[in-house]
Give the backbone structure.
Amino acid sequence: MLTFSTVIFVILAVVTLGAALAVVTMKNVFHAALMLVLAFFGVAGFYVLLEANFFAAAQVLVYIGAISILIIFAVMLTRGVTMARPNNEQSGAVATASAVLFVLIVVLVGPWKINFPGFAPLNLPARAFGAPPEFKMAVQAVSPDALQRLGRALVDQYMVAFLLAGVLLLLAMIGAVWVARERKLVEIVKERREMAAEEAAAAVPPAPAAEAVATTDAHH
Amino acid sequence: MNELLLVLPPLIFALGGVVLLMVDLAIPRERKSLTAGMAAVVSAAAALCAILQWGLAGSGFQGMISVDGVALALDALVGVIGVMTIGLSLRYNALRGILRGEFFVLMLFSLSGMALIGHAANLLTIFLAIELLSIPLYVLSGIARPRLDSEESAMKYFLLGAFASGFLVFGMALVYGATGQLSLTGIARTLITSTSVPLLVVGAALMLVGLGFKVAAAPFHMWTPDVYQGAPTTVTAFMSTATKAAGFVALLRVFGVALGDLANVWQPAFAALSALTMMIGNLGALTQINLKRMLAYSSIAHAGYLLMGLAAGGVSGVRGVVFYLPAYAAASLAAFAAMTAAHNGEEDQSISAYAGLSRTRPGWALVMAVAMLSLLGIPPTAGFVGKYMLFQSAIDVGLVPLAVIGVLTSVVSGYYYLRVIVTMYFEAPPEGVAVTKGNRLSLHWVTGAIAAAASIVLGILPAPLINAVTAGVTSIR
């Protein structure tokens, strides 16, 4: 029963879950980001175990290579929050809700078979607590030329969706450029002054403050 | 080549957006009205194309795309809304310093997403089309950056919108898991034999949450007042009319076409949502002193009336929805047009700022009055005919309590709609406001007048549109 892949699966599971848990419990945001990288590596390991080599490579390239690095950049560029102690008073409630939801999904949705085309029917409780061979059986149907078929489907059957995704990326880019566009020094100085006025207005609540806020609306 | 004909109107919007994006680079900052003009031409061309294609039906792109009467009606409607929004944008955006090329480019892309929803024959296409309409709107609502209210609006819309998209795509995944199908007709076909009904129901519920957010139905309406208030008014006008139309067509395609056989499960949910939305929208509007916020609640309330048509279902219910969308759009555009016109420069959004408008700006007061009457549903306006059709369809299928709630909440809505008219006509204008004898003939005025005129014409002569809509609805595939 205790096959080689089972051992690897257990190790990967412990590493992934441990790292994921560390992401949400660590006080230092930077350390949390590094733990996220570890968790992503664990998931990539699962893909290897499932013989989905392409997904493993994509996981490493996209999540570890790009997204994690982006997060780390963001953390380092915003020094103010790196060592912040965000006091989350709802963690207990969230933990309870997550546990309840997990059990509900396993108990309610689990018993019904999910039929993905080309896959053997899956049974959720077995997936959640069972051994990896069941996983393996599920993906065997798509090997070995899965990658070629995926590529061909993208430009054939799913061409419209592929093109639309391209347009979406273009839009996200336009939007990001707009939001982060360079502004003239005059604009920035004016903005700072208005923010200062607003803060002053917030500090002194009575009548004159309301007028100060009103004048800040006179942008552009 | 023939397949391209099936998506011609959305394609015109998207290609126009791409071309305009590049052409705009060559247009100097102070002549952006040229960009606006070109965007209006693209929008009008797409609407015209949809009208010329009327009667076309078919599917293509390996079942990803289809076309029917409702798709073409949506194309034409959003195209016209696009042209009218651009008509309002020129003056308002210039006053606000946001007459920028990106504004019109993003709008065209958003329009292409809206139009594509009608043509989508696959859950994948529907999801991508909804994202295509949403992402430009997130940017548009924040386009008056660094104004704080506009930034707040964009931030709230983006966060909640992304969350709603998560619900939508998760629901789609569950439906796919239950049926093994992504195409709408494929889902409809396997629905009968599916062994995972609970999974289907959970999936449908999640999709309803996601789409309910897009059409601002209660209890997923929380974002609406803040986002509508903070966004530039032209963007708000665009959102409240075109997005609502696209969202309802998405609901129609997912629930009507794909999950039609599951109607006995989701129709009670639609009826409950409808009742809740009508009550929350109309009661929420009662206490508003800010006109833009009041119109936001009014928009929620109208989502409730429209949901009633979907809850009733059948040709008569869907016909009511498809008729009410342009009727609501005309009245809403007229109201926003009057709102942006009544003040130069900085707009004062409080209702009391419109006191005595009948003396200072008689033309705009009339436009606003017509808009309010149509939103309220007083004959002979389009709003009356639309509401009549929706309530009738609900009574026909035995949803009498829902129709009663609709009538009662409409009566309640009279208070806040008529209050605007009373303020405009029977209160003295504030000191020092210049009285203008007649309106200068401007593009802005023409746009507002057309919207108000459409509200009345559709109310007096609704038959041609009703006939066209009925033909469109019976051709749904």
